[in-house]
Amino acid sequence: MPKKTIAAVDVAGKRCLIRVDFNVPLDGGRITDDRRIQAAIPTIKNVIDRGGKAILISHLGRPEGTGYDAASSLKPCADRLGELLGKPVGFPSNDCVDDAAAAAVAGMNKGDVVLLENLRHHKEEKKGDAGFAAKLAAYADVYVNDAFGACHRPDASMVAVPKALSGKPRVSGLLVEKEIKFLSDAMRSPAKPFVVVLGGAKVSDKMAAIENLIPKADAILVGGAMAYTFLKAMGKAVGSSKTEDDRLADAKRIVDAAAKAKCDVHLPSDHVCSTAFSQSAGDIEVFEEQIKPGFMGLDIGPKTQIKYSLILTKAKTIVWNGPMGVFEWAPFSVGTKSVAKAIAEATASGATSIVGGGDSAAAVERFGLADKMSHVSTGGGASIEMLEGKAFESVNLLDNA
Fold it and tell me: Is 36 designated active site?
């Protein structure tokens, strides 16, 4: 069922508790990528422009959960959000559920925005604790889930808080609505040809997604380190490339299942390799088919880049999750960049392109192609679980439209 969104709720004068995902990368207290903060702005503005009060809650990083931790404070996010909104954002205390936080919420006027301190400074957040959730729920007349990147988690703010607010409006934010629409539509009725690009380090991380996608996709293009587990399973020499040897039988089974389902699984036919896992050390060579001992595959090779690009430019629906190589290092970035460019070209020709969060999102951002995609997800883990066909309790708890 489609879920009710914040746009359908009269928020004037109401306290809207908005679970956002401000889990942004920090370097010495400086935000290095504010995409997740920017992604939350439409929902925040929807509330405050209509006279609502926006109380924002989020996690950041993985603190111990034993109290205030300056290194994972959300204060830089409050400052950045204030700059983006062009108005002050309250940041009342070092705790999301102390008296100062409660007083700040009680003192809010229409159109005010308050960001509370990191939920994960309390271990009860990760435990899904009902008592902790009840303290957060006490702030709210309306609950808004706009944290797609955390939708697959059973944390207190995602599940126990909406449970505690039964009888009050519990709705999705505009970002969560958009994420679920793109990902669920792609899975339910993709325009054909439907091409899936999967990369990254581990086959085990993508196994369930591949199995769920085989009956739906016309082609699956595999890259990244995970490709070497598949190639080893097919009897190819992979040198010292990273493989998951406990997954070789699974990889072989997937290739066989895809053949039966008439889904083409494409593996790299050539490889950019090095003798060292390093940007500058080590000898770099390109190998076709078999990789020499002592060399590890760190990117798809030129022939594979051309082949994958040709398949992608003919696609009508594309889902991409995971880079083709170590794209952060210039010598091994070409494969990921060529795939990103081909997806951008297909999108310009009318294809729907969905980029899973995490490294894929970082890659299209780095290559200046994010705005050339139909949708760039804010949630890596959540988008993979949607591709696996999983339902999210955090979303099921929201009111139906």
Answer: yes
